[in-house]
Amino acid sequence: MRINQKEEKGIHILSLDGRFDAHSAGDVEKELNLAISKGARKLLLDMDSVEYISSAGLRVLLAVAKKLKKEEGEIKLCSLKPYVKEVFDIAGFTQIFKIHDTTEEAIQGF
Amino acid sequence: MGQQASFITLEASLEHLEMINSFLHKWAKKASLSTHSENELLLAVEEVYVNIVKYAYTKSLGKVSIHCRIDEDSLVLKIKDEGIPFNPLQLPEPHLISCLKERKVGGLGVFLMRRFVDKVKYEKQGKYNVLTLVKSKKKDTECQEGEGRRNRGS
Question: What residue of B is the nearest CA neighbor of A52?
């Protein structure tokens, strides 16, 4: 999994590229936790290049969302591929997370 | 009757997930599954495999084998391990609470696995746990036909 990071209008944007599975979930969790420990409170995950997610990826997202909520921060997601969206729908994650179609839309929503 | 069949045997370790994916990818191609259906199948197998890696063998690394065959209408997988007996079909469904604060982390693997294949069967065969997953090819054909119609109409 490749993770590119940038900041725009005070929003920490992480673009994930690869499979979000049991093998990569630990690395993603580390990067997200590192960003939070450095003070990021508005996190945007760009999922445009994530074709696959399993429960290991969902677990990381939920754990990070809970952590951010305690810190009065927020995580949003954007650009979900159809399969990833299906997994989110079935797991009930579309009701938990704020999901936008594009990064621009998500940035405006913060 | 199975038209084609093969299997892969590995030590139960997360490091081998990629090898499993490559093995399944070949079979998904042979069965003409769409990328979407292939992802659903990979998720189902990953969830089963990760459970085996985490919980089946407590003292040392154990083996997992995945047997694959194509039937007329479906791709049939049998996942075998020699670990602690575990029937995932007996797990209760998770509470899909939409409130972030109350939602529990984890517990989704088996639930998603059951949703993404058409049939699941658990058997204890001697020392082996055998989980059979069946992914229908038929629904995929219907889906692809539907996609084709939509594409032509757009």
Answer: B39
**pLDDT tens sequence across A1-39:** 999 999 999 999 999 999 999 999 999 999 999 999 999
ipTM score for this prediction: 0.93
Name the pTM for this structure. 0.91
Kind of pairing, strands B63-70 and B4-11? antiparallel
Cα separation, B21 vs B78, whole angstroms: 15
Q: Given the structure tokens 């194509």, which residue do they identify?
A: B70
Main-chain dihedrals φ then ψ at residue B146, nearest 5 degrees: -60, -45
**Domain extent for B129:** 4-153
**Domains located in chain A, CATH noted:** 2-109 (3.30.750.24)
Q: CB distance B103–A96 less than 8 Å?
A: yes
Count: domains in chain B: 1
